[in-house]
Design brief:
Keywords: ATP-binding, Nucleotide-binding, Transport. By secondary structure, the chain is of the alpha/beta class. The protein has helices spanning about 40-50, 90-100, 105-115, 130-140, 160-175, 185-195, 225-235, 255-260, 275-285; strands at about 5-10, 15-25, 30-35, 55-60, 65, 75-80, 150, 180-185, 195-200, 205-210, 215-220, 240, 245-250, 265-275. About 30% of the residues lie in helices and about 30% in strands. The protein has a six-stranded mixed β-sheet with strand order 6-7-8-3-9-10, with helices on both faces. A four-stranded antiparallel β-sheet has the order 2-1-4-5, with helices on one face. A four-stranded antiparallel β-sheet has the order 12-13-11-14. Bound molecules: adenosine-5'-triphosphate (ATP). Adenosine-5'-triphosphate (ATP) binds next to helix 1.
């Protein structure tokens, strides 16, 4: 068992933030923790990493309690940027943590290069952008090649290029056997990363394989929209029109191309959108017309 979260309760004053949270991670994969602002995601990650104590409940990581002194050889938590020191360089931070963990200079350089921060690691953190700070925090987190990596909003503040790099790195780490538990607000990013979602609702976990909710939709522009609409619907492919675009869901796009080509219809543009998480998110959090997504227990 990689991670076992058992019957965790946590309140702040009268506010019950986590109410009997239980879930288990048994195999290396990416698991996304999703919930509205204030639903308790950071609190839960902080409890898992033993930064905050729960009121009740128990966490085990690789079979040991999460307060075991050796646990942090195998687990890393990407903290938020308040842990960084403005007057130190990125390299100073890496060297400091590297010294504590007995990590070689070569490994520090290799990891910084892997994350893409080697070119500015000798600059002071005061000169870093938000994205550069995120890169440094990620480099610090993966320095000891953890088996379980916990990331709180890792894509926050990243421009599209950096977000793609981090996403690719996360996928690479998982392919090497690392388990990644991450929280994110960015549902489109989650769709690209994983099918395994933990929804945090009213202090409790709804643990789901999102693949059954996956929807792939295509937005297509053709040279003759009326004829294309008629032709596709006639072929049994449910197609709708909005403005100058056709919309088709959950279909092998190759079939659509073949039908259009056979009928001498030309595709001018095509856009593909994958959504599963967002659709399920709405079902979970906006049920019964409840549009107040803020969690209260
Ligand atoms: N130290 C604290 N003292 C009192 N209340 C707290 C404390 N930390 C968190 N809370 C409250 O607990 C709730 C959950 O906070 P938490 O930061 O875990 O949520 P979150 O899901 O991570 O939110 P966000 O997505 O906005 O980061 C919020 O209502 C927050 O105000």
């Amino acid at each position: 068992m990689i991670l076992s979260v058992n019957q965790i309760h946590k309140s702040y004053g009268n506010q019950k933030v986590l109410n009997n949270v239980t879930f288990h991670i048994e195999k290396p994969e990416i698991i996304a923790l999703v919930g509205p602002n204030g639903s308790g995601k950071s609190t839960l990650l902080n409890i898992i990493t033993n930064i905050i104590k729960p009121d009740q409940g128990e966490i085990t990581i690789f079979g040991r309690r999460n307060n075991h002194p050796e646990i942090f050889r195998e687990v890393a938590f990407m903290q938020d940027n308040s842990v960084l020191y403005d007057y130190l360089t990125g390299y100073d931070h890496l060297q400091f943590i590297g010294n504590i963990q007995g990590i070689s200079k070569e490994q520090i350089y290799k990891t910084a290069k892997r994350v893409g921060m080697d070119s500015y690691m000798n600059k002071k953190v005061s000169q870093y952008s938000l994205g550069m700070k995120q890169h440094l925090l990620l480099t610090l987190a993966i320095l000891n090649q953890p088996k379980l990596l916990i990331l709180d909003e890792p894509l926050n503040g990243l421009d599209p290029t950096s977000a793609i790099n981090v996403r690719e790195l996360v996928l690479e780490l998982v392919s090497e056997g690392t388990t990644i538990l991450l929280s994110s607000h960015n549902l489109a990013e989650i769709d690209r990363l994983t099918d395994h979602i933990l929804f945090l609702k009213k202090g409790q976990i709804i643990n789901e394989d999102i693949s059954i909710h996956r929807k792939i939709s295509y937005k297509i522009e053709v040279d003759n929209i009326e004829r294309a609409l008629f032709t596709l619907n006639d072929a049994g492919i449910v197609t709708t029109q909005k403005d100058k675009y056709l919309f088709i869901e959950n279909i092998h796009i190759h079939d659509v191309f073949q039908i259009l080509e056979k009928n001498r219809l030309r595709v001018l543009a095509i856009d593909r959108e994958v959504s599963g998480t967002e659709r399920r998110y709405k079902n979970v959090f906006f049920e019964n017309g409840d549009t107040n997504e803020n969690s209260s227990v």
